[in-house]
Amino acid sequence: MSDPFVKEFLAHLSGKPYTKNDRRALSRVLSLMENREPSADEVLRSLAGRTGTAYRIGFTGPPGAGKSCLVNGVARLLADEGRSVGIIAVDPTSPFTGGAILGDRLRMHDVALHPNVFVRSMATRGSVGGLARAAAHAADLMDAFGMNYVLLETVGVGQSEIDIVEHADTTLVVLVPESGDEVQAMKAGLMEVADIVVVNKADRQQADALKKELESALAMRPHDASGWIPPVMLTVATQQEGVEELLQQIQRHRRMLETSALLTTRRKARIRHELLKMIEERFLDRWSARDVEAELDRYVGDVLEGKESAYVAAEKLFKRLTRPSRS
């Protein structure tokens, strides 16, 4: 028999709008999915035709840039307009529990109790790229559940966060005035995924100088067919200064994507990325299930001793893993 919260969630997919009373079911299903419990599969298999409505906004950038405050501010504006908002805040993994070190209320204390907002902290659990492995599924679940917007905040690890672009419709790169010396190094990675750049904590010195430097760098960046040049916005998120103007730019970018059909192109790319990641996970699961560690060690020894080339050893291991399992 299904978990009762799974049944409640599936019943909700009939089309009811999101309400605060449904938080328990959504929270429970997210936990089952994040822990890769078999009961979550029933829900994930039921999402066909139920996703694609929520607009996904990614917030990335180095630690200490104020991403959480900015997410908090954007979410509140949307929620006050009557929009339902899901927030996925990816945190470092606790070495003791395997869960997120920072909790929902701590990260988003100002907005977590808003009736139109649901906040979920997720642990990276060893994943690279700033986003938890389960973040894509979590976004799909929130989407299917009726959220109008899903905001994704990465853990804050610098350039390795560029995979945010694979999950978001609009990507914001958040910096602070002191980031000026880092901009040159970031051009080849994090800066290239930005749809909008935010200089937060703009009440500090050098904010205007950094804004001009970023605008010059972004104007020379290769652009897609739309010709969109990422605007550079100044905000002081703790005071809600500039956040309303930032949301207007997000909506402007959304309109551009929708009218140019680039939104569909981006979402196709996201689905392709998610399918490949799921195939990769299943491949790794098969590796664990077949316990080939001893065989791997043997091939490592053979390569080290010159008995096999690394290419041939990898080919043999691949054939071993893709061979049908014996029942």
Please tell me about this protein's structure.
The chain has helices at 4-12, 23-34, 39-44, 67-80, 104-107, 135-144, 183-186, 207-219, 243-260, 262-290, 293-304, 310-322; strands at 55-60, 85-91, 117-123, 149-153, 170-175, 196-199, 232-234. It is an alpha/beta fold. Strands 3-2-4-1-5-6-7 form a seven-stranded parallel beta sheet, sandwiched between helices. The radius of gyration is 22 Å and the shape is globular. The two termini are 25 Å apart.
Strand-residue fraction?
5-15%
Q: Biggest β-sheet: count, sense, barrel?
A: 7 strands, parallel
Q: Which sequence of strands runs across the widest sheet? A: 3-2-4-1-5-6-7
Q: Pick out the low-confidence regions.
A: 93-101, 126-130
- Individual helix count: 12
Order of helices and strands: HHHEHEHEHEEHEHEHHHH
- Helix percent reads 40-55%
Rg over CA atoms: 22 Å
End-to-end gap: 25 Å
Tell me the overall shape.
globular
Structural class of the secondary elements? alpha/beta
Number of strands: 7
Q: For this entry, what is the oligomeric state of its chains?
A: single chain
Instruction: Look at the structure and give the mean pLDDT.
Output: 80
Q: What are the defining features of this structure?
A:
single chain; 327 residues; alpha/beta; 7-stranded parallel sheet; 7 strands; 44% helix
Brief rundown of the structure:
This protein is an alpha/beta fold. The chain has helices at about 5-10, 25-35, 40-45, 65-80, 105, 135-145, 185, 205-220, 245-260, 260-290, 295-305, 310-320; strands at about 55-60, 85-90, 115-125, 150-155, 170-175, 195-200, 230-235. Helix content is about 45%, strand content about 10%.
